[in-house]
Design brief:
Layout: H1 2-28, H2 32-37, H3 43-67, H4 74-83, H5 87-96, H6 100-110, H7 116-134, H8 138-170, H9 175-229, H10 233-237
């Protein structure tokens, strides 16, 4: 009988302890948004930089995808038209191509009749203008890649200063007091690093696309100049 009573009492204590632990765990649970907001004031500029980074990435991706395309049939059509002496048809073919390479080839067609060096120079100028348009706002991504982590570190340092100032006033050096305030301030560092990594990655990926376009356009300019200098070279080889 006594054993049964002790067992029942132990079960009651265990159940009560489990309920208390469960309530504590429930009370300590916070949403992701609440957790992020504990990062402090510096999360506001970091969030603004994140939204602007996303906007630039989407806008530049759409622009580059449209303007870095290359129609493989364009140069073939232009070669055929120039070999037949029909410059107007060659220009009409280039007018249909609204990409950056099409604009460069179009400039070359409009300057046919001038010295080769001048034609090549004009085409390179147009190519540089197109590349400059592609690089718009990419400098902003490079700047954000450096600013966002710095803002996060400043937020964390500011939080640490506040923690030690509070300790100097209250003389409370408990682990809970230090870690509780520190983990909140580390959120700003983590957020800044994430935004910086996104901006840094997008910056270099877009620059890689532009570098690839720059290399291709140089090849197209050379091919166009060769067509002008040796318009019937293909026919002679046949």
């Amino acid at each position: 009988m006594i054993g049964f009573f002790l067992q029942a009492q132990n079960d009651t204590i265990a159940a009560a302890s489990g309920a208390v632990i469960e309530n504590i765990a429930t009370d300590n649970e916070i949403s992701v948004l609440e957790f992020i907001l504990k990062g402090g004031f510096f999360l506001i500029p970091i969030a603004l930089l994140l939204f602007y980074t996303i906007y630039v990435i989407i806008e530049r991706y759409i622009y580059l995808k449209k303007h870095t395309k290359y129609d493989t049939h364009l140069m073939k059509d232009i070669r055929i038209h120039l070999n037949s002496g029909n410059i107007e048809m060659a220009i009409a073919s280039a007018e249909k191509d609204t990409t950056a390479s099409g604009n460069v080839i179009k400039e070359g067609l409009h300057t046919i009749g001038r010295p080769i060096a001048e034609i090549e120079s004009n085409m390179e100028k147009v190519a540089n203008i197109e590349i400059g348009q592609m690089e718009r706002r990419l400098g902003h991504l490079g700047l954000i890649a450096g600013i966002a982590p710095t803002l996060g570190f400043i937020g964390t340092i500011g939080g640490v200063i506040k923690i030690f100032y509070s300790i100097s006033i209250t003389e409370n050096i408990s682990i809970g007091n230090i870690s509780g305030g520190l983990y909140e301030k580390m959120i700003s560092s983590g957020s800044g690093l994430i935004v910086g990594i996104v901006a840094y990655s997008a910056y270099h990926l877009f620059n890689g696309v532009i570098d690839s376009f720059s290399l291709n356009i140089q090849r197209h300019v050379l091919e166009f100049v060769n067509i002008i200098q040796r318009p019937n070279a293909t026919n002679k080889t046949k």
